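Figure 2 data, in text form.
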Amino acid sequence: MTDAALPQLWHGPLPGRLRLEPVDPLVAVYDRASGQTHVLLAPMPQILAVLEAGPADIAAIEAQLEREHGLAPDPGNRALLAERLEELKALGLVERG
């Protein structure tokens, strides 16, 4: 298997870095490292929760969300998750690699 064929792993923040406060239907996320507060919609807080357990690729994130949050299997889920992961990366909350 070549490096290009290996799944991309996503890494969440170190434990204790984020403080999440639900404000239905939103979640306010305070990032202790940057001092910034972000307001997120589902499935972004749920993605952060999956990555809190350790690095994962999109397939593992999708499977965990299906199990824990009732995400219905759908061919478009991976594209949606990829977009949300890129948004979380842009906020500095996750890293790829």
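Caption note: The mean pLDDT is 91.
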